[in-house]
Write a structure and sequence with these properties.
This protein is of the alpha/beta class. The protein has nine helices and nine strands. The radius of gyration is 20 Å and the shape is globular.
């Protein structure tokens, strides 16, 4: 090979290596500030707004379907009953999705009433979709609109006190979610996140044993405990450390990076705070308003 081609190749390689990784804008529950949360409408709108990752939550129904929902019950704050009437807040947790079939769950409208915490949210009829339906709709939309590939950040909504109450045990919960991922998505496009370290430890164990394909694991953090304490409790170092955004500053982001983890804080809705976190070196952020992050 002529020497000039060698130098040209080295130059291209060096240039590629010098390019920073793209800042990951994750649309929280799609785009909760603008559309009914965790609805297919919200995910497609988020893609229109240029998110690089769709962030969503999953729970399990009585018939063991993987349902996209933040709450393990029908939330009276923004859902209507099958007849279109408001739900009594005192009885909302009796509508436990783990004790309801998916056919029953999808009769509830969680979009027409709106959410008073998000006044910009459009009032549109929306039912809780299956994870498989979200992936199918988003992938079809990507092809239709010729959009770039994006990731899915799937949060397993889990807490130990709710095992066998509003959710399965970690192994069954994880296996049900993994089966959908394996069928519909390449693992390199998946982030699996949770506040429940038992869930993350199980996924790490399955990946190390070769029973699961490798996905990025993200530890969601809501406490002031230091990073080392969290890692000790977790038992391994995840790919992503995802704290509440007010729990991190420039020095902490640097310390997390030194431990080999990316930093993607949640839930960041102030444009000023978004810019500050990016300037401090965060690798991305989770937001209810992807439109506010377009200028980053």
């Amino acid at each position: 090979m002529p020497l000039r081609f060698v130098f040209a190749l080295l130059s291209l390689t060096t240039s590629a290596l010098a390019q920073p990784l793209p800042f990951d804008i994750q649309g929280h529950r799609g785009c909760r500030g603008l559309m009914p949360e965790n609805s297919i409408l919200a995910f497609l709108k988020a893609l229109d707004l240029g998110v690089t990752t769709l962030e969503l939550d999953v729970v399990i129904s009585q018939d063991r379907k993987v349902v996209v929902s933040h709450d393990a019950y029908i939330n009276s704050s923004f859902c209507l009953d099958p007849s279109g009437k408001p739900i009594n807040k005192k009885s909302q947790e009796e509508l436990n999705l783990y004790l309801m079939t998916y056919d029953a769950i999808k009769k509830y409208d969680c979009g027409s009433q709106g959410n008073s915490a998000f006044p910009q949210q459009q009032l549109l009829k929306a039912t809780k979709p299956l994870l498989s339906e979200v992936i199918e709709a988003a992938e079809s939309y990507r092809k239709q609109k010729n959009l770039p590939f994006f990731a899915y950040s799937i949060e397993i909504k889990s807490t130990p006190k709710e095992y066998d109450v509003s959710q399965p045990q970690p192994a069954q919960f994880s296996d049900l979610v993994y089966a959908i991922i394996l069928e519909q998505l390449p693992p390199e496009r998946v982030i699996l996140q949770s506040f429940d370290f038992n869930i993350l430890a199980y996924w790490n164990e399955q990946i190390r044993a070769g029973r699961y394909q490798k996905v990025q694991l993200a530890a969601l953090i809501s406490t002031l405990k230091n990073v080392n304490t969290h890692l000790k409790a977790l038992g391994f170092t995840p790919a992503i450390y995802s704290p509440y955004h007010l729990l991190v500053g420039k020095r902490k982001i640097l310390r997390i990076h030194r431990k080999g983890m990316k930093v993607i804080p949640w839930t960041v809705n102030s444009p000023k705070r978004m810019k500050k976190l990016k300037a401090w070196g965060a690798d991305g952020l989770i937001t209810d308003y992807p439109d506010r992050a377009k200028a980053l």
